[in-house]
Amino acid sequence: MGKPIQLFNGKDLSGWKATGKTNQWVVKNGILTSPQSGSNLVSEQKFEDFKLHVEFKIPAGSNSGVYLRGRYEVQIEDSPKDAHPNAVLFAGVYGFLAANEMMNKGAGEWQTFDITLVGRLVTVVANGKTVISNQEIPGITGGALDSREAEPGPLYFQGDHGPVEFRKVVVTPAIK
């Protein structure tokens, strides 16, 4: 793996751009915050194969996601802890791959994803537990920026389904 890249500096939106008409994203006390529904936030840097570490928190009833290469959404959602996992709940690759176990800590708690993406093969570790292991994503998920799967792409945070906060975003690119 290459050198880790801190994509969020804890101070401002440097390296990121909002999509849509209104940017609601702000940085408060070192936390990247979308206080209400609005624009998505897209990284200026693009990545091919990588490991991502992201820390996030959502309030009750909220919904977000992190898009890998801008094409594959890993779901951030206030899913019930006792829900049977499926591909539209917490840590699922939206519409395609379900987590094998519900590892959602619940609303208002800081949570982590450690995601490895190589080609279309994805591993998702949610709150320290591997919930998707080296499975192939069959195609782009809804909300994808484009369908050019062979090309590098940005990370993006869904900001149009309710409040969400991020405090750490580290990408470690693969060395080719």
Give the C-alpha Rg: 15 Å
CATH topology type: Jelly Rolls
- Tally of strands: 13
Q: What characterizes the major β-sheet? A: 8 strands, antiparallel
Multimerization state: single chain
CATH superfamily: Exo-inulinase, domain 1
Tally of distinct domains: 1
Head-to-tail CA distance between termini:
9 Å
Overall mean pLDDT stands at 96
Global shape: globular
CATH architecture verdict:
Sandwich
What structural class do the secondary elements suggest? mainly beta
Our estimate of the beta-strand percent is 35-45%
Give the number of helices: 0
Low-confidence stretches: none
List the helices and strands and how they pair.
Blueprint: E1 5-6, E2 16-18, E3 26-28, E4 31-34, E5 41-43, E6 50-57, E7 63-68, E8 72-77, E9 111-118, E10 121-126, E11 129-136, E12 156-157, E13 164-173
Antiparallel strand pairs: 1-13, 2-5, 3-4, 4-13, 5-12, 6-9, 6-13, 7-8, 7-12, 9-10, 10-11
Summarize the structure.
The chain is mostly beta strands and 176 residues long. The chain is 0% helix and 39% strand.
Notes on the structure:
This protein has about 180 residues and is an all-beta fold. The protein has one domain: Sandwich (Jelly Rolls), CATH 2.60.120. The chain is built from no helices and 13 strands. The protein has strands at about 5, 15-20, 25-30, 30-35, 40-45, 50-55, 65-70, 70-75, 110-120, 120-125, 130-135, 155, 165-175. Strands 1, 3, 4, 6, 9, 10, 11 and 13 form an eight-stranded antiparallel β-sheet that branches. Strands 2-5-12-7-8 form a five-stranded antiparallel β-sheet, with no helix packed on it. A hairpin with a 3-residue loop joins β7 and β8 (about 70-75). The chain is globular and about 35 Å long. The relative contact order is 0.30.
